[in-house]
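Please annotate the following for my students:
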Amino acid sequence: MATFTSSLPDDLMERLSEQAKKLSLPKNKLMEKALVLYLDHLKRAEYIKSYKNASEDEDILLVAEEGMAEYLRQLEK
């Protein structure tokens, strides 16, 4: 496991300390969990953006429509 050292604004450190105490967690574990959640959120946001971009791409829409037509033909058989 790597070691990371950083500084935080006093108000953020105070909020972190309060939450860690409420949850009976060490501050580093709370920060680790929060960072994992945030990075997962960023990844989901990337997927959403890519799907929105794909929905506006005429070539991708054409391929999707062709794929659906083929799928319907297979269902009919």
